[in-house]
Specification:
The complex is a heterodimer of chains A (291) and B (312). Chain A has 291 residues and is mainly alpha-helical. Chain A is built from eleven helices and no strands. The N terminus of chain A is likely disordered. Chain B contains 13 helices and two strands; from the N terminus they run αααββαααααααααα. Classes of the chains: A mainly alpha (291), B mainly alpha (312).
Chain lengths: 291, 312
């Protein structure tokens, strides 16, 4: 009776080899991304660290790489972040509340609204730039100003905020709503005093990640005219530039020193973004509630 | 005398559970929330109007047949020529090289996360992949131009300073997290019973992954592929920085080529006078780009919905 055992053993050995080879392939596929990320970080730090200094953080751009800085660009990015926060969070959470708490899913217009948001999330960012160019910069004649950039970035990441907020709202169990209704609360009282407070950690995490994505965007800002020389502090209706746009401008310069300056700008940008990401993940782990 | 005679059988009128009057405040709130939702509808309408109106004017001057059949794209030169094929080919070549990287690697990463990784490893790798997805494209562009292209040159691949190969491959790496996360969602939706059944019949982990989980999650995997292709078509900064600015029909990835997005970016930066034909090309090319990505997004949304319907 040793024959079946033998066949079993042999086939399982072949399976083991194939299994190991497959496992190795999987490991390679997941490692490639991280490998590139690691190489990228090391490369950027190696090139740019020498230029990360007070000049970079405070001074305006210049044709001399040793005097050039990204001060107005960094401030432009920070102002834009604040404007975004004020615009995108109320709009995103409002839309999410409408879809989750109020909308009747059987109505065609509500289904259309959902598909519309899913599609907007995948529209190329440069198309938003065209929208900004046509309507905001030239259409209503606002010009190439900070507010135009902030509005375009708001529309760009609005779908992300809506999706994250909806997930957070959906995770609040129905029993909490029913309990509040049973005590005589109106629908808005239920939403405002029970659902929203319970969903805030998820909404905050999603909004921070969306903000991080927005301030790393370059292409739409190019079209609304952020590629200009700005030496003063940006104002709401004044011309502006942003850190990623400044980096792009430096990459395009022929002198090698500007490449290094670009790397320094990237270090600053990544430091801001990674801090935001880490904060979002910390927030999620700290406040996430399991019902 | 007001009676509370509960035996009278007239409770609905006697004990109204609803508020006496209509709550205008509550209605107002619903209206405000619906207006928030309308912003995204207005965005879509805005995009379509912004693209279509100038495009109509463009196609009045340049025939639509010439636009799609012409093989020379030189809108800023004399004599100007408006054949969009070089830009389409440029986009196609970049997308192809991006797919070479992101389709297999994204699927492999998804299978690893869903079927092989221990929960602890998974809880570290997933946020790390999100971080990779959060790197700005201008940074990837810098990396492609100043590190990856020189690396390819050192390796003996005779690439130009600006080339499609480097840009495409880096776009592909950038899209690995996109494929991985949508595919993994689909695999997570496959019922555990199917896996348990296969294991009970003596299947190995390899067999369960490739013969049970992947076929069961196939609509989600295809959705992630379509989404990644759509993202590659719409990617701007990496190709603008690393792929060069010459619109030409060349399938050799070592040469430079311009894509639709890179053309829009490069032309949109400059101070093109409103109403000129150069200005309108931005919109005609933008409309072409939007239609292509829109069709792919719709396919992807449909497919995702299908796996959700089957298993959830």
């Amino acid at each position: 009776m040793s024959v079946p055992a033998d066949t079993l053993a042999r086939s399982s050995q072949g399976d083991r080899i194939r299994g190991t080879a497959f496992y190795a392939l999987l490991l390679v596929s997941i490692t490639i991304g991280f490998l590139l990320l690691g190489v990228l970080l090391v490369d950027v730090v190696r090139k740019g660290i020498g230029y990360v200094d007070p000049t970079l953080l405070g001074e305006p751009n210049s044709s001399d790489p040793n005097e050039a800085g990204a001060g107005p660009a960094i401030r432009g990015t920070i102002y834009m972040m604040l404007l975004l926060l004020v615009m995108v969070v109320p709009l995103g959470v409002g839309t999410a509340l409408y879809l989750e708490e109020y909308a009747n899913r059987d109505r065609w217009y509500n289904r259309l609204l959902e598909i519309n948001i899913q599609n907007l999330a995948a529209v190329p960012s440069i198309v938003y730039g065209i929208l900004g160019l046509a309507f905001i910069v030239r259409g209503i004649g606002l010009g190439r100003v900070l507010l135009a950039g902030a509005v375009i970035l708001t529309l760009l990441v609005l779908p992300t905020v809506i999706v994250a907020s909806r997930e957070a709202i959906r995770a609040v169990p129905d029993s909490i709503r029913q309990g509040a209704y049973a005590l005589g609360a109106t629908q808005w009282q239920v939403v405002w005093r029970q659902v929203l407070p319970a969903a805030i950690p998820g909404i905050a995490t999603g909004s921070i990640l969306a903000l991080a994505r927005a301030i790393g965007e370059t292409a739409p800002l190019l079209l609304v005219g952020a590629l200009t020389f700005v030496s003063v502090n940006p104002t709401l209706l004044g011309s502006f530039t942003a850190l990623p746009v400044q980096i792009y401008q430096w990459i395009g310069r022929p002198q090698e020193d500007f490449r290094l300056l670009a790397a320094a700008g990237i270090i600053v940008l990544l430091a801001i973004l990674l801090t935001m990401n880490a904060f979002a993940i910390w927030l999620r782990n700290r406040y996430q509630r399991r019902w | 005398m007001t009676t509370h005679d509960l035996t009278a059988g007239a409770q609905p009128e006697a004990l109204p559970l609803r508020a006496a009057g209509r709550r205008w405040g509550e209605d107002g709130i619903k209206l405000v929330l619906a207006l928030c939702a309308l912003v995204s509808v207005a965005t879509t309408i805005g995009i379509i109007v912004a693209l279509v109106l100038p495009s109509i004017e463009f196609f009045r001057e340049i025939s639509i047949v010439d636009f799609f059949s012409g093989d020379r794209w030189a809108p800023l030169f004399e004599p100007a020529s408006f054949g969009v094929q070089p830009l389409l080919v440029g986009t196609l070549v970049v997308t192809f090289w991006a797919c070479v990287v992101c389709l297999p690697c994204g699927l492999g990463a998804a299978i690893y996360l869903s079927e092989y990784a221990r929960p602890r490893v998974r809880s570290i790798l997933k946020p790390a992949l999100e971080t990779l997805a959060g790197i700005p494209t201008v940074v990837f562009g810098f990396f492609a131009l100043t590190f990856f292209t020189p690396l390819l040159q050192d390796l003996g691949v005779g690439v130009n300073v600006f080339n499609v190969l480097s840009a495409g491959l880096v776009v592909g790496v950038m899209l690995i997290p996109v494929v991985a996360s949508v595919s993994e969602d689909a695999m997570a939706a496959v019922p555990q019973d199917l896996r348990d059944g296969a294991y009970a019949l003596g299947s190995t982990r390899l067999q369960v992954s490739t013969r049970i989980v992947v076929p069961a999650a196939i609509s989600g995997i295809i959705a992630s592929y379509v989404l990644a292709i759509s993202r590659a078509v719409g990617e701007t900064m990496i190709v603008l920085i690393a792929a060069g600015g010459i619109a030409q029909i060349a399938f050799d990835p070592r040469e430079q080529q311009q894509t639709m997005t890179a053309f829009i970016g490069a032309t949109g930066i400059g101070d093109v006078p409103t109403g000129s034909i150069e200005y309108k090309t931005i919109f005609a090319v933008g409309l072409t780009l939007f239609v292509i990505t829109f069709v792919m997004n719709m396919i992807s949304i449909r497919l995702v919905r299908r796996f959700r319907e089957i298993y959830e």
